[in-house]
Known about the structure:
This protein has 22 helices and seven strands. By secondary structure, the chain is mostly helical.
Amino acid sequence: MRPSGMGLQRAPRIFYFGPFSLDASAERLFRRGSPIHLTSKAFRLLLLFVSKPGVTLRTQEIMATLWAEDEHATEQTLRQHVLLVRHALEDNVAERYIVSEYGCGYRFTGKVTERPSSYMAVIVDQYCVAASEFQRSSSPAGMLAALHMYERALSIDHSSANALGGAALTRILMADFQYDRPRELLEAAQRQAEAALLLRPDCIDAVLALCKVSLDYFWDFERALRLAQRAADIDPTNRIAAFMYPWILILSSRFSEAIDFIDGLPRATSALNVMVTCRALATLFSGDYDTGRSELAAASRRWPDYWFARTFFGLALILVGHERDALRIFDEVRLSAYDPLVGNQMNARYFAEGYALYTRFRLGDVVAAEAGIERLARLSESQFIPATIFALAEIGRRNYGEAQKYISQCRDNRECWYTHLGVDPLVKELHLDVANLYQPTRPAS
């Protein structure tokens, strides 16, 4: 019996030649990070060639490797597959990868390595730079484009710490902004972040990604705090790192520590919109609603398009009894269109949706609230809609049993609002047992 396989497990995972990378385990071929379609048989033929560069492979040897005895194949079949591979590689007389040894077989002439060339390394860096620009846009389309760019970089160099860390952090932001079900995003981010840190321990994107995984997936506040400090030590100017440390303190009900930390930062950092908002939230969640409202109002006036601040300003208005003003703000945020001219935006539309439904029920506008829930339920048939929204709606309705069911969904989804439950003022009437909310689980291997 002739062998029907090639022993792929013995081949290096990825081969590099010219502008191409060939992932043996995934059976994928890329040119400068863009996938190129090949049939399974044509891919195995190319893998055979690149596994033995410079060696003339006899026709019968190739056919015995690619086709089993019960498969009908001729030398013409092989020539057709060689043509398919040449077409995929854009093989031509000036740059030929596969040459015919007439009367004998074929030989692969390209230089094959297990590491990308310096030329390809430059392309990887360019993809990572472009990806980080898309990531900063914070829009759903921008995040998807960033992830695509990082994955293209990884298709060229699967051991790029920048691409692994960047992809991990992009998935974290997509989870935080609730653009997709967070659980899978957090799990994938953990794997990529850990791989990045094995390659480069000071990869700040990877450290930040693991920080959020520790916080929102495992609810391990202390480990998250250590990772936030580590990220700040790596780059004290990183705005995400600067935000995460006091934010974790807030979620741990350590409000005065969070305020002291922010006040001790350099002025250029403490004056950032995210840090001013974070300080105001520490005040609000500590129970000083009037001062928190004043600070969030000031932040909203200073940055009128900063929806993160405006959403929580609306929450502050609820807490001081100005529900109609709060509803106006929530509607502005949830109906807002993405503006590419607004820098460093933090998407808060889903939070605004939930808070708006809560407020409508509390104002007695049940018809509008029910219509909003029905609209979101229909939308959930085609895209991810956070259970957070429905939980807040049911709290507003004072239907606490249903609210608890949605909170359980939040936990299962690993939605970031579940991590907020210990401090969010709107859930106090549920009398949740905060001590039992967060039971840290063993990190995935």
